[in-house]
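Batch manifest line 396
LIGAND: pyridoxal-5'-phosphate
JOB: complex structure
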Amino acid sequence: MTHSYLMPTYTRQPITFTRGEGSWLYTEDNTAYLDALTGIAVCGLGHCHPEITKAIQEQAQTLIHTSNLFGIEWQERAGAVLCQAAGMDNVFFANSGAEANEAALKLARLYAHNKGFKRPKVIVMEKSFHGRTLLTVSATANPKAREGFFTLDDDFIRVPFGDIDAIKQAAANNDEIAAILLEPIQGEGGLNDAANGFEFLEQIQDICNANDWLFMLDEVQTGNGRTGKYFAYQYSSAKPDVLTTAKGLGNGFPVGACMVRGRANGLFGAGSHGSTYGGTPLASRVVYSVYEQLKDGTVMQNAVQEGDFIRQSLTEKLAEYHVTTRGHGMMIGIVLPSDWDCSTLVDTAREQQKLIINVVGGHVVRLLPPLNMSRSESEQLIERLVNAIQTLAKQQ
Ligand SMILES: Cc1ncc(COP(=O)(O)O)c(C=O)c1O
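JOB STATUS: finished
ARTIFACT:
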């Protein structure tokens, strides 16, 4: 490629895809790549799902945007089905995960303001990722993402992921905590599950209730069927006050949502938050269409079945390297030995195996395949990944 006018915010892989279909991406010369990343947990129903594409086409020919100064029928419909699926009362539609989390953090500040707090704090987790706006990057743990931005560090208290004692200690030491924000499974931070399954969410909710904090879950990555439930928190009996999501919500169409329930309801009023684009007729119709694909549970059942199959097969086939697996549904982490240099794995998988993967936390292979992947595609994924990891093992 000649000179690029794009800001170099990403280290891009030297490949360009021109077409996608289901679990596959194609280059200009029609070489097929098995996509176990789905645009970073976005295209959960696979690339160019025919029903989603049809909804986009029809809505693009009918009405794309009017602004939130007017009623939007598709936004009402999408809001109703999403809140029902999530067990929440109300939704604000945004355009990305960061914006959904920004809304959540602003809600926490309003909640604190109403209580008369002077300098409210939100508890967040080590290894968290919540986005790139100034407030969400301040909530994010990764020092590289925060460097140089004068992040709002005093507004956050960081504790180890799911560490109940550390949260209790924070409660004892601060009387202006407004909320706690966390991912049920950490995605960017290394595909981290809490030690006791999802029970920790119930314990955290109890602490939030006891202290009158908002219990806020970031399901930007884990939501919309990715883990085998509509939302990952539904593996527990906990119920958040604030729930955010994006990524799979639009299957590639940019959209995010911040939902509220109970004591978090009614904090935003006319003029206190907004977005020109949030919940356009087009975006909302896509959200509704994604819901229609997920609502009968078949796709999520498939995610559990194939996810378990992939985890189990990889554990067996990679036993000699003492590899462990984690995650739920189609959010899969393959933990390679911590002393391995894994920096070549993504390139080896792509170049030699025509497989698209990602590595997080230095040595955890993160697989985020389509939720509706077939058994034969799962088998191909396993075979290709095992080959790539064997090549990597020889280099150690
Ligand atoms: C858990 C989580 N929250 C928030 C975000 C930010 O979402 P977006 O990139 O759509 O702003 C991400 C993106 O990876 C994420 O994984």
